[in-house]
Amino acid sequence: MITISESATDKIKEMLESEGTPEMFLRIGVKEGGCSGFSYSMGFDDEQSVDDQEMDMTGLRVVVDQSSLRYLNGLEIDWKESAMGGGFTIENPNASATCGCGSSFRTAADAGKPAEAGEC
User: Fold this and answer.
1) What pLDDT does residue 74 have?
2) DSSP states of the chain as a string?
3) pTM, entire model
């Protein structure tokens, strides 16, 4: 199960509306790479696979590919405003280590494939 805060949901819906394409949805996934071994991917998509898991989060359509699900169970996404603007934050209970920028992680059971030194 993935949790997206109300502020993050509102921001994502606002971004989707600006795209002007109602059939688009939020796709969340994991790919190998990043400083720690895996990196998050989050973006808009309009093509769905039969293996995708679809969730409805207060009117926000969210899709996760089957291979990413095991790394994202319990994931929490939030939107934080700051003096420098705003941004999404990700809390992943499956991560045993994360990089300094927070965009990559590894789990106790799987280290993924870390990027070369200096590529976060």
Assistant:
1) 92
2) --EE-HHHHHHHHHHHHHHT-TT-EEEEEEEEETTTEEEEEEEEE----TT-EEEEETTEEEEE-HHHHHHHTT-EEEEEEETTEEEEEEE-TTEEEE-TTSSEEEESS----PPPTT--
3) 0.79
